[in-house]
């Protein structure tokens, strides 16, 4: 089972927040045998949130082998040529380590910030990914679309990976699963997708025909994760910071059915997480493997968790879970 580490990019309230902790975690995850570090995109958060693509570039400069993934870039906010160029150049600079994961976005405040109508998000997403893929694969692109017009556009340099970096997409509704199969190479679940729902959604996703040029039907399960000597120790380290994050999510998703899941108790959270002793965490990873997952992305450090606690969990996953 391949593991990814979802890094905490939230600001810490200082005047000049740094990525020092994220770099330390990424280096340790590389040593521990994780397959990816994974970053998300967020805006209008106090006390701040690091920009995803410059942060990924910084991490590329401070690591050597570990994959560099996003889950995900909010595609409707980005011009496809700028996005294709930036990710292609990052793939070259990192020696072919990029996996580009995307999402539609959901916060009305963020759509207003970028001047994008939420009703256009699916159309913008599909046009963006179509153009990114065409530009990456070496075509000279002429395109007259709803949002973008190109005449003879091309990329130089192209990405290091042949034929291109892999594409992931998040989303939980049937239309998102069909879109992922048609346009991308892997589906990333939400962190609060229930275990009861996952087998059916994995089967539904893999039942859709793959689009021309796609590279697979990968399933990446995103979960809260914390490995400690005992399940009690894992709870002591994770519960408080995670509850603070979930309280914030409840406000952000106040109009979404997801809001109720973020108000659930500890037992419900751990029932869909990879949390506990090394043996318990190994069992949970095997459980997701049996469902058909190809990888699991773990959010180990919610905002407010001390760096030392996060490092201990990463080290434990490497020494006592992955090694087993």
TrEMBL record:
One of its GO terms (biological process) is alkanesulfonate catabolic process. The keyword Flavoprotein applies. Residues 13-294 form the Luciferase-like domain. Keywords: Flavoprotein, FMN, Monooxygenase, Oxidoreductase. One of its GO terms (molecular function) is alkanesulfonate monooxygenase activity. InterPro entries: Luciferase-like_dom, Luciferase-like_sf, SsuD_RutA_monooxygenase. Transmembrane segments: none annotated. Pfam families: Bac_luciferase. This is Alkanesulfonate monooxygenase SsuD/methylene tetrahydromethanopterin reductase-like flavin-dependent oxidoreductase (Luciferase family).
